[in-house]
Amino acid sequence: MTSKFNKTRLIPDYQWQIHRDYIAHCLRWDFIIKLYSASIKRPNNKFKILDVGCGEAHLMKTIWAGRLKPELYLGVDVDRPVLIKALHKNQPRNFKTEYMFADFTQYSHVHEITKLYGHFDAVICFEVLEHLPNPEYADKMLKNIRYVLKKGGEAIISTPTRFKPEDQVSCKNHLFEYTQEDFLVAVRRQFKIKNIYGTMMYLRKFNKYYKHCKNVGESSKFTKLIDILLDHYDSNVLSAFLGPAFPQFSRSQMIVAVKP
Would you list the domain boundaries of the chain? Predict the structure, then answer.
């Protein structure tokens, strides 16, 4: 049943150069630390995190390195060999980690998760939807993410998006990509959107906006800062670092959404 999915993934441990995808992934994982540090650092907290499409559990390692202590981290994936690799890597001693094969487009799989672990405070789904065959499968996954959340729990979901329907997908291994508007519509069907961020800015679009700002005399502090960044970093770094501030120019969107 799961052969319909594309299972390619970024493996940061083996990156031989700094690439924008690697940087963007690291910044997404770090965002989770910032978002939930107050909740998860409390003694005896009952915070449970579910990582959909966990791969080799890089998010878990980031949580561990950030000295957070959730009650439970559960990583799920459709790639069994990758789950075995995650299981055999160093596991934290200060919080419980579990791994499970699960297809999140299948209700029976997510129902089994809630039977075993209950409902979750946060569900993370980073760069997974684009590996599903079509939007119908993505809608099923979003609905099932909602199902495993507690009332008031948060889903943090990121995926590459297109600016226009006629735009091509950004990578050959992506089976489909939402437009920015379609992604918002799909998430709103299941959740109340709290925040929208970009995670991979398209610099050509940003440069047009920036040149306009300079031409109309926008804040000199803003333009000076951007000049320094453009001079110091290459496009790989800037596209990841500036993405959150300019979601409208981003080729990848991250949404923080709440289960009503």
Answer: 2-201+241-258
